């Protein structure tokens, strides 16, 4: 596949860009929030692990019954691996996911007194938990700041001239410099909503895009 052209990044301009599109996206998507249903940090941690290579809609269908069966870290840690695999099978990559969930829950019991930790460093130590998952949990279960770099955030950040990186971690650090910290969590949700509704991967709807005026990739397929 041909390498996509990247927009030249100027950090100061990118900061201004964020400041301009922020109120427009906020007004456009007042409903923007985490799409994974959960009632506590543990449920969100599990749902986020299950969401890798799977749609949020499918994860929500599975967790609706799953969370009635597995109510605590102890239930997950004690359950036979094969049973967890069967219960999460329809989310895909179920062997890895089941292993990671069971192990993470055991670690939470052993090292964190049975409570999901609330710092990036500790979450990363759970094993099978990367920065993306940790940021989802920090931002949405603990009210801390977290930029979640999923496929939408990566694609739109590049098109909008906020970062030239396609590596999620490098891009996250770019965004941390140009988005005010208090807005990190909601900024990710707004970008995801815009990516799903308007700035889609193959054919972005630049003609109806609310932020087209400020987008260097508007109507310019070489940047898609
Ligand atoms: S103008 Fe087009 S490329 Fe830019 S954000 Fe809008 S839909 Fe995406």
Task: Explain what the structure shows.
This protein is mainly alpha-helical and 224 residues long. The chain has 2 domains: 11-31 and 147-223, Helix-hairpin-Helix base-excision DNA repair enzymes (C-terminal) (Endonuclease Iii, domain 2); 41-141, Hypothetical protein, domain 2 (Endonuclease III, domain 1), CATH 1.10.340.30. It is 56% helix and 0% strand. The chain is built from 11 helices and no strands. Helix 2 runs antiparallel to helix 8 (131-141), helix 5 (81-88) crosses helix 6 (94-112) and helix 9 (151-159) crosses helix 11. The longest helix has 19 residues, at 94-112. The radius of gyration is 19 Å and the shape is elongated. The model has no long low-confidence stretch (mean pLDDT 95). Bound molecules: iron/sulfur cluster. Residues 159-160, 198-199, 204-206, 209, 211-212, 215, 217-218 line the site of iron/sulfur cluster. The site of iron/sulfur cluster has 13 residues, from loops.
Keywords:
mainly alpha; binds iron/sulfur cluster; Endonuclease III, domain 1; Endonuclease Iii, domain 2; 224 residues; 2 domains
- The CATH class of the largest domain is identified as Mainly Alpha
Q: What structural class do you assign from the helix and strand content?
A: mainly alpha
User: What ligand species are in this complex?
Assistant: iron/sulfur cluster
CATH architecture of the largest domain: Orthogonal Bundle
**What's the main sheet like?**
none
Mean pLDDT: 95
Strand content: under 5%
Give the topology.
Blueprint: H1 11-28, H2 41-50, H3 56-69, H4 73-78, H5 81-88, H6 94-112, H7 120-124, H8 131-141, H9 151-159, H10 168-178, H11 184-197
Bound molecules: iron/sulfur cluster.
Iron/sulfur cluster (SF4) binds next to loops.
């Amino acid at each position: 596949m041909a390498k996509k052209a990247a927009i030249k990044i100027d950090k100061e301009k990118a900061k201004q860009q964020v400041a301009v599109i922020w109120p427009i996206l906020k007004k456009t998507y007042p409903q923007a929030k985490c799409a994974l249903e959960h009632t506590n940090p543990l449920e969100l941690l599990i749902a986020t692990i299950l969401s890798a290579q799977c749609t949020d809609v499918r994860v929500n269908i599975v967790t609706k019954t799953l969370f009635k069966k597995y109510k605590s870290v102890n239930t997950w840690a004690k359950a036979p691996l094969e049973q967890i695999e069967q219960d999460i099978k329809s989310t895909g990559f179920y062997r890895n996911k089941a292993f990671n969930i069971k192990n993470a829950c055991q670690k939470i019991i052993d090292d964190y007194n049975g409570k999901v930790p609330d710092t990036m460093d500790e979450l990363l130590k759970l094993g099978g938990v990367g920065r993306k998952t940790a940021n989802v949990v920090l931002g949405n279960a603990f009210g801390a700041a977290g930029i979640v770099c999923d496929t939408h955030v990566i694609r739109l950040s590049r098109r909008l001239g906020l970062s030239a990186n396609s590596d999620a971690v490098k891009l996250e650090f770019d965004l941390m410099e140009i988005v005010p910290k208090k807005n990190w969590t909601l900024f990710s949700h707004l970008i995801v909503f815009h990516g799903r509704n308007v700035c889609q991967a193959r054919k972005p709807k630049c003609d109806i895009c609310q932020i087209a005026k400020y987008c260097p990739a508007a109507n310019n397929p070489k940047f898609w």
